[in-house]
């Protein structure tokens, strides 16, 4: 039955059918293969149940915050701040790209949104500064991966809602891995800049505007502080933090930057509804598949196989195996559906193996996130190619070093759990 469903899903997906319909139709195919038509009565209940979680209410708020930041001009101010920090060294715009990715990661938790924001402003500027277009696009796609790792994170919220893991704890666990990933891309940019003798930007001009830049950037920096600070300290829930950030961006965008108009607010609400509804539909449809696989005892058989093979006694090897499964699946499947389908199967086994839930949550999130730049389905590749006017084939060819660096960071995080557990334990989360 599982093989029939898998084959059916890929046929439907590559035929151009919307993903959530492909998943629902795959479930119907599985029911037909089982021959138990009574299961159809449960489909609607499972579909709704996959979306019926209080924790998921935070997602539209974080998405809306990111969109409002872009439309109000606050994202531009964050980029100015990033340029002030690291823009006056050789290959400075490459470092600005990564630092901006880290700063923007504290706003919306969406790699696609970060790729769009970073690409629009930085890819043309990097190309003008002497960077090759494929490298500029690849670094932008790589920097966008930091978004779902450093809090807030849409993927972490989905994982937490499915495993009853603390969202605040997961967010805290993602800070050091996100910084590690950013540091790895900075090292990559260092060697690229030296090899290609990239120019050094005029530091005098940047420093001359330091006071003005800091003053302009303060209002933008306050947005991620509200989100991360409120959640990590426990003052507000993730949903409340997202709502506060939306209110803050509305006030600043209307009265301070004056970049937000009624039309802009309406467009932001429409885009938020469009993006979040697609996420929720995919989650609901993926929940049906997960329920059907459980009904057919596929997770139990998989767990028995891993137990008999002895992998459960080796947490490191177990997570390597999980990553080896997630990576190829993520190459062909949308990330939310990958996370929704595999988390209920993998998470109980990880806990059984003695792996910290927060550690495994970050590993699972990073695995799924890397798929965002992995051909042929990597969404961020399409975004940076379109925005930067770079041939998609060139992006696909030159993205692999960034994938390799991301996989190396993933391996380091798997091998050293304290990277993820140190801050949550320090904060008592």
Please tell me about this protein's structure.
The protein has 429 residues and is mainly alpha-helical. It contains 23 helices and no strands.
SS content category = mainly alpha
What is the subunit organization of this protein?
Answer: single chain
Assign an overall shape.
Answer: globular
Approximately what portion of the residues adopt beta-strand conformation?
Answer: under 5%
Given as residue ranges, the uncertain stretches (5+ residues, pLDDT < 50) are none
Assign a percent range to the helix content.
over 70%
- Through-space gap between termini: 41 Å
Order of helices and strands: HHHHHHHHHHHHHHHHHHHHHHH
- Overall pLDDT metric: 82
Rounded to an integer in angstroms, the radius of gyration calculated over CA atoms is 22 Å
Largest sheet: none
So how many helices?
23
Count of extended strands: 0
């Amino acid at each position: 039955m599982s093989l029939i469903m898998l084959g059916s899903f890929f046929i439907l997906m590559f035929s151009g059918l919307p993903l959530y319909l492909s998943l629902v139709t795959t479930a119907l195919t599985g029911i037909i293969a089982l021959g138990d038509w009574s299961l159809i009565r449960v489909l609607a209940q499972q579909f709704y149940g996959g979306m019926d979680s209080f924790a998921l209410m935070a997602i539209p708020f974080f998405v809306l915050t990111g969109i409002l930041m872009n439309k109000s001009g606050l994202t531009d101010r964050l980029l100015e701040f990033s340029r002030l920090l690291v823009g006056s060294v050789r290959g400075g715009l490459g470092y600005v790209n990564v630092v901006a990715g880290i700063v923007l990661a504290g706003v919306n938790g969406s790699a696609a949104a970060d790729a769009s924001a970073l690409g629009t402003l930085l890819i043309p500027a990097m190309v003008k500064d002497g960077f090759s277009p494929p490298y500029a696009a690849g670094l932008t796609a790589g920097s966008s991966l930091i978004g779902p790792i450093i809090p807030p994170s849409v993927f972490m919220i989905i994982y937490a809602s499915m495993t009853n893991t603390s969202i605040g704890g997961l967010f805290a666990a993602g800070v050091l891995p996100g910084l590690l990933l950013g540091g790895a891309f900075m090292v990559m940019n260092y060697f690229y800049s030296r090899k290609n003798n990239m120019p050094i930007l005029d530091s005098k001009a940047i420093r001359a505007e330091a006071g003005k830049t800091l003053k302009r950037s303060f209002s933008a920096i306050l947005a991620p502080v509200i989100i991360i600070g409120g959640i990590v300290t426990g003052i507000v829930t993730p949903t409340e933090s997202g709502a506060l950030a939306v209110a803050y961006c509305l006030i600043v965008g209307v009265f301070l930057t004056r970049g937000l108009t009624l039309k802009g607010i309406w467009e932001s609400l429409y885009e938020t509804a469009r993006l979040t509804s697609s996420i929720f539909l995919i989650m609901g449809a993926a929940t049906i598949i997960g329920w059907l696989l459980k009904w057919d005892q596929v997770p139990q058989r998989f767990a028995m196989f891993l137990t008999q093979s002895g992998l459960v006694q080796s947490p490191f090897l177990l997570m390597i195996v999980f990553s080896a499964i997630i990576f190829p699946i993520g190459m062909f499947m949308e990330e939310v559906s990958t996370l929704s389908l595999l988390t209920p199967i993998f998470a109980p086994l990880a806990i059984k193996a003695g792996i910290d839930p927060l550690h495994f949550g970050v590993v699972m999130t990073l695995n799924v996130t890397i798929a965002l730049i992995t051909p042929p389905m990597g969404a961020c590749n399409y975004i940076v190619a379109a925005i930067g006017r770079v041939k998609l084939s060139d992006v696909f060819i030159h993205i692999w070093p960034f994938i390799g660096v991301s996989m190396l960071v993933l391996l380091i995080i798997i091998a050293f759990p304290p990277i993820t557990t140190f801050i949550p334990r320090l904060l008592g989360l």
